[in-house]
Design goal:
15 helices, single chain, acyltransferase, Citrate Synthase, domain 1, 355 residues, Citrate_synthase_bac-typ, globular, 2 domains, Cytochrome p450-Terp, domain 2, binds acetyl coenzyme *A, mainly alpha, three-stranded antiparallel sheet, Citrate_synth-like_lrg_a-sub
């Protein structure tokens, strides 16, 4: 038995390879650093979906279809009730989409994600939603739907870098959840909803908001060591550190730090974050000398999304806006396996008395 399944191989995939010993992430043959620095969301969706949908055409057709999907999704927004957090808002919107295994549904899931997330953020502020502009790229339109302004190219590029960096990551908890649901042939929408439901937990995609809470609580560099020691003495987990697979630094941390550094006006915040990062790593190394705990993707995710003006409450939904292309590609790959995922358990409960 392996309760966290860490030593179980449950799928063959052509999508991504997480090399935890060497800190390398390869996505369909590309190192994540290269994808992050050079690809737009549309390119990456095409890269991940290629071979899984017969009717997938070229990247520019896909970009156009994503724009149309954003426009179609805007009609859903008004039907979603008030009082939902961003993940619940996104999940509620997705639940209204068709639930089949087609490319059209994958595109509707991916295209609707930023529309729903931006609308959730604005609803939370008491502001009306902003209609998408299908002429913009997915990332530029996402930022446009938040503020009503077409963003600077550097901002759209930074959001692209983020969405691309988190598009896929082996058989992580949310992707596994999506594959299990896809294996039942429930449909891509159900698989995506399973994925986002697993993602929202603080041990998976729910960490970056708490990263900023930690930076706020520390406040100034001089407080770092004392604050960290007290948190560790309470056996708290420090958000943005540690990983189930990486035994070295998560390569996505530096891809995102590079994207953050390209945004003007971020050097002071980066300097503060680096100080906290060094202090946390030093203390974790003292506390766990035999277990390498390093910076994971969430630490610089938090800083990058903050710099783009996204509220921390919405960080997990924004993560889903990138990961949706991985979930749908994995779902299709699992469907192609043609095998229901159905592990077994060992019964430890009472047994009926012998007659
Ligand atoms: N802060 C403090 N202690 C930690 C941390 C941390 N961030 N991470 C692990 N530890 C401790 C554990 O408490 C454990 O201590 P113990 O042996 O005294 O119980 C020891 O280090 C070994 O940790 P594991 O439980 O083996 O780590 P695991 O592989 O199960 O967990 C996880 C990985 C869940 C990511 C963990 O490191 C964690 O909780 N990190 C903080 C949350 C976070 O940043 N999540 C985002 C991950 S990236 C992603 O999913 C997108």
């Amino acid at each position: 038995m392996d309760s966290g399944l860490e030593n179980i191989v449950a799928a063959e995939t052509v999508l991504s390879d997480v090399d935890g010993q060497n800190g390398r992430l390869v996505i369909r043959g590309w190192p994540v650093e290269l994808l992050s620095a050079s690809m737009a969301f549309e390119d990456t969706a095409h890269l991940l979906w290629e071979g899984f949908f017969e009717d997938l055409r070229d990247v520019s057709s896909l970009g156009r279809q994503l724009g149309e999907a954003r426009e179609a999704a805007f009609a859903i927004v008004s039907g979603i009730p008030d009082g939902l957090d961003s993940v619940s808002f996104l999940r509620a919107g997705w639940a209204l989409l068709p639930d089949d295994e087609s490319l059209e549904t994958a595109i509707r899931l991916a295209g609707s994600a930023p529309v729903l997330t931006a609308a959730a953020i604005r609803r939370g502020r008491g502001e009306p939603p902003i209609a998408p502009n299908a002429q913009l790229s997915q990332s530029a339109d996402f930022l446009h739907m938040l503020t009503g302004k077409v963003p600077h190219q550097a901002e759209a590029r930074a959001l692209d870098a983020y969405l691309v960096t988190v598009c896929d990551h082996g058989l992580n908890a949310s992707t596994f959840a999506a594959r299990v649901v896809a294996s039942t042939r429930a449909g891509l929408t159900s698989a995506a909803i399973a994925g986002i439901s697993a993602l929202k937990g603080p041990l998976h995609g729910g960490a970056p908001g708490p990263v900023l809470d930690m930076l706020d609580a520390i406040g100034v560099p001089e407080n770092a060591e004392r604050w960290i020691d007290e948190a560790l003495a309470r056996n708290e987990r420090l958000m943005g550190f540690g990983h189930r697979v990486y035994r070295v630094r998560d390569p996505r941390a530096d891809a995102l730090k590079t994207a953050l550094a390209r945004l003007p006006g971020t050097s002071g915040r980066i300097g503060f974050a680096e100080h906290i990062e060094r202090a946390v790593l030093g203390r974790l190394a003292e506390k766990y000398p035999r277990r390498t705990l390093e910076t994971n993707v969430e630490f610089y995710t938090a800083l990058l999304l903050e710099a783009l003006g996204l509220p921390r409450e919405a960080f997990t939904a924004v993560f889903a806006c990138g990961r949706i292309i991985g979930w749908t590609a994995h779902a299709r790959e699992q469907i192609g396996e043609g095998r229901l995922v159905r592990p077994r358990s060992v019964y430890r409960g009472p047994v009926p008395e012998a007659a």
